[in-house]
Every structure is written in C-alpha cells, then in structure tokens.
Amino acid sequence: MGWNEDVIEKFRNSNGTENYWGPKLVILHSIGAKSGETHLNPVVGFRNEHGWRVVASKGGSPENPAWYHNLRANPTFELEALVDGEVVTQTVTATQISDDEWQQAYAAIVAEEPQFGDYLEKTDRRIPVLQLTPLAA
C-alpha cells in the first residue's frame, strides 16, 4: 500500500480523527485532466466561511502537483472532509485565489501551518491557493 492509500485508509477507519494532518485532512476526488479517471489525493484543507482552501505546494518543488492541473481542468468534484465530527463527502467547485488576494490568503495559511512558509523558500513559483466551495444542496 502506498503512502496516499495508507493516509486515506487511516482517515476513513478513524472517522477522520487519526491521520497525519488531524482534522485538516481532506481527500480530493480529482478528475484526471487527460484520463478522466478519479484520483484520490489527501491534502491539508484550511476551513473558512466558504468551504476549504488547499495549497498546491508539492512540498515546495518547482512544479505544481498533478491534482492542481486536474482541478483546473475539472473544477467540480467530490471532497471528503471531517465536518462536525463526521466524515462527509461533498461536491465542491475549485477556484484559484486571484493574484491580488494571494498574499493575504497565503499569509493566513502560514500563520496556521508554518511549514507552508518553508515551501515558498524552496521554489521560485507562486504556489497556487484554491478555494473549494460546496455546491448548494
């Protein structure tokens, strides 16, 4: 079993309470830009009044993670997250944070999880931040 699969299994088996990122873990069900297949990607999700924000950091590597390209190509997808003590699956739409809002959004993320500041120092690219907004029920 690979690392992603292990993280997802622990998240699901513990009802979201035991995993690498604690209650911030979300699982993106991204739809492949080329393949059209669903991929499960565990990432840190920062809860806000509109849903969640995710950071396409890839640990500060020079390129964006594959899931970022998938969300840009197919922005409506399912997300698993811990909400009010229960793991739920919601349909969300991803939008990229605009350039004029990026600095404030990224600073808030670094204030909550300082390692994301380290990722900026490792790369020359502006690390994208995406807002994941649940579709109205």
Strand order of the largest sheet: 2-1-5-6-7-4-3
**What portion of residues belong to β-strands?**
25-35%
Q: How would you characterize the largest beta sheet? A: 7 strands, antiparallel
What's the average pLDDT?
Answer: 93
Counting helices, strands and paired strands, the structural category is: alpha+beta
- What is the percent of helical residues? 25-40%
Low-confidence stretches: none
Shape: globular
Q: Give Rg in angstroms.
A: 14 Å
Count of helical regions:
4
- The tally of strands reads 7
Distance between the termini: 35 Å
Which series of helices and strands comes N to C?
HEEEEHEEHHE
Brief synopsis:
It is built from 4 helices and 7 strands. With 137 residues, the chain is of the alpha+beta class.
Verbal overview:
- It is a single chain.
- This protein has 137 residues and is α+β, with helices and mostly antiparallel strands.
- It is built from four helices and seven strands; from the N terminus they run αββββαββααβ.
- Strands 2-1-5-6-7-4-3 form a seven-stranded antiparallel β-sheet, sandwiched between helices.
- The radius of gyration is 14 Å and the shape is globular.
- The mean pLDDT is 93.
